[in-house]
Write a structure and sequence with these properties.
By secondary structure, this protein is of the alpha/beta class. The protein contains 14 helices and 20 strands. It starts with a strand and ends in a 14-residue tail after the last helix. Bound molecules: ligand BES, manganese (II) ion and zinc ion. Ligand BES binds at residues 259, 277, 334, 336-339, 363-367, 369, 424, 430, 453.
Length: 501
Amino acid sequence: MDFELKSLSPTQAAQLACDALLVLVPDARPAVEGTDALSQLVARVNKAGDLEAGVAKLLACYRPEGFKAARVCLVRAGDGAAASVRKAVAAGVGALRQPGVQRLGLVLSLMDTSDASVRAAVQAAADATYTFTTTKPSAKARSLRHVVLGVSQPASVRQGFETGKALVSGVEFAKEWANRPANHATPSMLADAARKLGRHAGIKTEVLGPKQVEALGMGSFLAVAKGSAEPLRFIVMQYSGGAKSSAPVVLVGKGITFDTGGISIKPAAEMDEMKFDMGGAASVLGTFAALAELQPAINVVGLIPSCENMPDGMAVKPGDVVTSMSGQTIEILNTDAEGRLILCDALTYAARFKPRSVVDIATLTGACVIALGGVRSGLFSPRDDLAQALQAAGDAAQDLCWRMPLDEEYAEGLKSNFADMGNVAGRAGGAITAAKFLQKFANDLPWAHLDIAGTAWKGGAAKGSTGRPVPLLLQYLIDQAALDAATSKPKKATTGRTRKA
Ligand code: BES
Ligand code: MN
Ligand code: ZN
């Protein structure tokens, strides 16, 4: 699916050759009505009150006079803000989702546009037509091929358009890998996908296996992988878009390709959904796919510890004590709290990059699903500046998160008589105690943790990956690149390889 940004007056929009024309109609009426077919159609509809004010109300017309497209659909876009545009485009493109619609004109020319609203339109059009076909060839693949995005001032929204396109690549990359069943997305297959991304300009990928991970002393990560016939992989990716001296952002993604719970086995109901337990890893891969396209001026490291969590004669047992890479010992009281066990060693590894910030992303706790549901990801950080930057990025990208507390009292329950800490602390505040566990490995790093257990995928009839939080992560990186550009002296300004964010 590709996108084209075009200057389209209402007259030109009506004359656009396409299978369908989707016109966003703001609530605010123009001071003077145009005399072209589109403006006249909208004026008549407004006068008749046939398209209620608000967001996402639709009116479909067939072969209206003066239009080249057979299908013309008007959709209310309320105040025209990014959030409204997103809902309007989702509804409109959803309604036009049919085999005959391959070329779509998406008209934003009747309203004021911004980078954010154009980006939202691109994202929503892709979202509304996404289909997973890898293991279901009979699924109706996306028929929409080409979207012409018509605006009155293309130059003023070019950046939002480019960001939107990169985001679509990143989100769809994440969705593809998260949606794959565990037998089509093993740790080795994830590593191969990361290696492929390493062919893009600015990206390098390195993959470590069990021997190297053992040599690093990652006893905690190794313990989780022990019960599986699939060998673990530790994926290290580097995107170098900034100056050599510019400290990188490190993204750490939980890559459990299937979580049975291990010996502390999970109940059978809905266990299939634990194929999504590599959603954090998928979001890191997706973010790198977006970086490959956007080439912003920043350095980013992606770390993905990946393995299966299986019960087996060789599997780690409740009560076993392991030594993490940090030297701290851990009593594994519950083998189902495995995410923190693989992440803790990756966090220790992250320190070697002397990062400006470390953000781990994980489908970590059912408790976070209970706390925040599927609307906001859980955000944990002892650093106010980092927490604010991530929260702001989420707001700007419409990929929301909510800051949770990290009071020391929450760590009480992690105490153990047999090791430096246990890996669980009872049911109360489960999302927070998991974060407290991770914090013991982040030490002085400027660290944040995103618990995406509720936001990475949807259950029910619409079961599938959401691609979150790729939009939040990419926005955060773009913001950091902009901050660098603003604070470095003009001569030394870090520039992107081809384009700047
Ligand atoms: N992958 C799960 C978390 C999860 C559960 C995500 C449900 C999405 C939906 C994680 O590995 C896990 O099993 N966590 C346990 C921790 C507990 C044993 C302390 C949980 O949340 O039940
Ligand atoms: Mn688990
Ligand atoms: Zn898990």
